[in-house]
């Protein structure tokens, strides 16, 4: 049984820190779609730095989120 994986979508997920409110750190995240599947980690980090450099909340991290179809080849 052979299995094939086909990448469908790649996103950059950016997490930001809004500071402490009522004793808890408030965080939020936003995903940016249509990222090239072949984007390097350096390119992803550069995009993250540009995005967080244009906004007020403190950038806390970024993730590459990739979805794929996994199918059995018959």
Automatic annotation (TrEMBL):
InterPro entries assigned to the protein according to its UniProt record, in alphabetical order: DUF1659
Pfam families: DUF1659 (PF07872)
Domain (DUF1659) ranges: 2-72
Annotated protein name in UniProt: DUF1659 domain-containing protein
């Amino acid at each position: 049984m052979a299995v094939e994986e086909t990448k469908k979508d790649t996103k950059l997920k950016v997490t930001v820190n809004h500071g402490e409110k009522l004793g808890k750190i408030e965080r939020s995240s936003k995903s940016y779609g249509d990222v090239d599947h072949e984007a390097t980690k350096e390119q992803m980090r550069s995009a993250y730095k540009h995005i967080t450099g244009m906004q007020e909340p403190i950038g806390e991290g970024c993730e590459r989120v990739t979805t794929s179809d996994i199918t059995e080849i018959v």
